[in-house]
Specification:
mainly alpha; about 0% strand
């Protein structure tokens, strides 16, 4: 069974990585998607979500 919230979070993080305009807004949206996905995810998915959070942290640090 596919976790739609996990997929949405993954796509949001990917978009934040490739899009340079409005990047802070995209990072914020991706963080919201990660938060939504976390509670309904398996342990393996949660580990991946933590990695995606690290990616967002790095992106945010690079634009500040």
């Amino acid at each position: 069974m596919r976790n739609e919230l996990f997929s949405r979070a993954q796509k949001a993080v990917e978009l934040a990585q490739i899009e340079s305009s409005n990047q802070q807004e995209l990072i914020t949206k991706a963080r919201n998607e990660l938060s939504s996905a976390f509670a309904n995810s398996t342990l393996a998915e949660q580990a991946q979500l933590h990695q995606m959070q690290d990616v967002l942290d790095s992106l945010e640090n690079s634009i500040q």
